[in-house]
Design a protein that fits this description.
Elements: H1 3-37, E1 48-52, E2 56-59, H2 66-75, E3 81-83, H3 84-95, E4 100-106, E5 110-112, H4 115-130, E6 134-142, H5 144-150, E7 155-164, H6 177-183, E8 186-192, H7 200-203, H8 209-234, H9 240-254, H10 259-265, E9 271-272, H11 275-286, E10 297-299, H12 300-315, E11 320-327, E12 330-331, E13 340-341, H13 342-354, E14 358-367, E15 369-371, H14 372-387, E16 392-401, H15 403-406, E17 413-416, E18 421-423, E19 427-433, H16 435-440, H17 465-490, H18 494-500, E20 505-507, H19 508-514, E21 519-520, H20 523-533, E22 540-543, H21 550-566, H22 571-585, H23 588-598, E23 606-608
Parallel strand pairs: 1-4, 1-10, 2-3, 2-5, 4-6, 6-7, 7-9, 11-14, 11-22, 12-13, 14-16, 16-17, 16-18, 17-21
Antiparallel strand pairs: 8-19, 15-23, 18-20
Length: 614
């Protein structure tokens, strides 16, 4: 063999090896990609319980960028959230699944939700029970929100060292005026509406009489709704909860601190049991898991994939009712999920209008409002949707106030919960100035301008008379526009709307009486109303979200998995993350200052309701 033939053969062999290795690498990469992006249907035992264990808040849209959520999960920080639709879809699918014999409702990690959001979960649990299957709820610290869900169960088991804490509803706010005065910060406020209390945190040291009046009204309505629904679910007397809350300190003291027995004697719980005893009861119902020694179960996070697959299977070929979730503050421009963006939400509405398969739209609103400009952008797209002949039905959740009501106004039909907080039809603008603050450290500002308005909107100078006149005129015009939007949508006169507007907040029951909403009911009721208006007898619902390209979805999956794999936490790191999370929850001053900064943009008007209920 010549040297040339030898090297030629060697080259061919190496080239062949290169091709084989290249193919192997491509196959490995493909396998990894498929493994990362494939959404598989979980393995469900032939007999099991659906484990419903919400963590953090129950929300109607997960907040923030998906990659940021993955990073937060990997680090062990951030605010935990459970998606409402995963819960309701899973519970309803489980009702018809012969393999699921019971729901195990573990409430120890649930932090809370608005009453209308919890009503949606309660409705799904009632449907599950109607199928003849058991719901077993258990917990240690059954706070008011946790107990609401527990009350829907067949059996409510409370840990021997636990308690049921029901304390009603309240609204306490932090007032910053004295602190701002000491810092030398002037807050210049422009508003319309006797009840528009959104700015009072910065201008007063206590609640105004008008705010106290409206707050007491809607808090009473919420408390009445809570009591009615819980006492009905537990078959208790109408005053059972108010009696329990009113005497709790005395009854627990008389029982030697045994709060669990007090709850049992009040018939709020079925039994006082430790968690191992609850597990034994569930094993009786669904059998034992040989690996864990506990009851056989499938979690909502796993089962939701099955529920979604079933839902998609039954939806194929059917006309769709598009659902657009508008949750969070309304802000200008593009905004991530959990916040309503003027441009990003308007784009979703436009896509629904142009999609021939979407025959009607349900706008699910859970928002205290925000930017008037962003609200107007969304409003215009909703008007265009209706003009295109597609019915628009609004379903109000916990809040649909101020800007949240602004974007609801053009609907054909508005549904709310009795406990929805809505209305607050009013406008304000806030301009802080810090010339006094600078003066405290010897800084002064001087100069010249070419017009009377020159320099009048600087943060380091007092607000001038011309600027004040201009801003108040803009706020007054914004209020009139708001009244016009509502009057057109509600088929009322300007004066009729003005008489129930003025920035006043209403509970859903009162809003129904006043004509601000059409019907009281659930999200499903709103969907059925949209179907009727679109003359649909067979249809599927689809939550409309911004679509990712194949490349974007793949990149997100790869980055998310890589982030989780590369960010293991040491015990010390996790402790620091937990401490940071606790500090964030108990730092209302930081939240209020951040909110003030969002509402202090010059030339911006806001329709916002500071009506959070605890």
């Amino acid at each position: 063999m010549t040297a040339r033939a030898f090297f030629f053969g060697l080259w061919r062999g190496l080239d062949g090896l290169r091709k084989v290795l290249h193919l192997i690498v491509l196959l490995v990469i493909l396998a990894v990609v498929i493994g990362l992006t494939r959404v598989g249907v979980p393995r469900i035992p032939s007999k099991a319980a659906l484990l419903v264990a919400p963590e953090g808040s129950i929300v109607e849209q997960l907040s923030g960028d998906p990659l940021d959520r993955a990073l937060a999960q990997a680090r062990g920080d951030g605010h935990a959230e459970t998606l409402l639709w995963d819960l309701t879809d899973s519970i309803r699918a489980a009702a018809g699944d012969r393999r699921i014999k019971a729901v195990a409702l573990d409430l120890d990690k649930f932090d809370g939700a608005t009453l209308p959001t919890m009503e949606e979960v309660a409705s799904a649990l009632r449907e599950f029970r109607a199928s003849g299957k058991k719901v077993i709820a258990y917990g240690t610290e059954l706070t008011q929100e946790r107990y609401y869900l527990a009350a829907q169960a067949d059996e409510v088991d409370l840990d021997p060292i636990g308690f049921v804490l029901i304390d009603g509803y309240d609204r306490y706010r932090m007032f910053l005026k004295d602190a701002l005065d000491k810092l030398g910060v002037d807050i210049n406020v422009f508003r319309v509406g006797a009840y528009k209390s959104a700015v009072e945190e910065f201008t007063r040291t206590s609640m105004s009489p008008e705010d106290r009046e409206e707050s007491r009204s809607y808090l009473t309505a919420l408390w009445s709704s809570y009591q009615s629904e819980v006492t009905s679910a537990r078959k208790l007397g109408a005053t059972a909860l108010s009696d329990y809350a009113g005497t709790l300190s005395k009854t627990v003291a008389a029982a030697g601190g045994d709060a669990a027995q007090v709850a049992l004697q009040a018939k709020l719980v079925t039994a006082v049991k430790s968690k191992p005893d609850v597990e034994k009861r569930l094993i009786e119902l669904v059998g034992e898991d040989e690996d864990s020694g506990s009851f056989r179960s499938v979690t909502v996070s796993e089962y939701a994939r099955y529920a979604r697959a079933q839902k998609k299977l039954h939806a194929d070929g059917k006309p769709r009712i598009g659902v657009i979730v508008a949750e969070g503050e309304i802000l200008d421009g593009e905004q991530p999920p959990g916040t309503i963006g003027g441009e990003s939400t308007a784009r979703l509405v436009r896509q629904a209008r142009l999609d021939k398969d979407v025959k009607a739209v349900v706008l699910r609103v859970d928002s205290p409002g925000g930017s008037v400009l962003a609200s107007e952008q969304i409003y215009r797209e909703l008007v265009a949707l209706r003009a295109a002949g597609k019915p628009l039905v609004v379903s109000m959740s916990g809040y649909a106030a101020s800007g949240g009501y602004y974007i609801s106004a053009p609907a054909d039909e508005i549904w709310a919960s009795p406990a929805t907080i809505t209305g607050s039809i009013g406008i304000f603008a806030i301009i802080p100035t810090v010339e006094k603050t600078l003066g405290k450290v010897g800084v002064s500002v001087d100069g010249v301008g070419t017009t009377p308005l020159s320099g009048q909107l600087r943060i380091d100078r007092p607000l001038g008379d011309e600027a004040r006149t201009l801003l108040q005129a803009g706020v007054s015009r914004g209020y009139e526009e708001f009244l016009s939007r509502v009057a057109t949508g509600r088929k009322k006169t300007r004066d009729e709307v003005n008489s129930i507007a003025q920035g006043r907040v209403w509970a859903g029951t009162d809003a129904r009486r006043l004509g601000l909403v059409d019907q009281l009911g659930s999200f499903d009721d709103a969907v059925k109303a949209a179907a009727r208006r679109a003359n649909l007898t067979s249809y599927a619902t689809q939550i409309l979200e911004p679509e990712l390209t194949w490349a974007q979805a793949l990149a997100l999956q790869l980055k998310s998995h890589a982030a989780i794999a590369m960010l293991p936490l040491t015990a010390g790191d996790r402790s620091l993350a937990q401490i940071a999370g606790i500090a964030q929850r108990f730092d209302p001053l930081t939240r209020e200052v951040a909110r003030l900064s969002r509402f202090s943009v010059p030339n911006r008007l806001y329709a916002y309701c500071f009506c959070e209920v605890r």
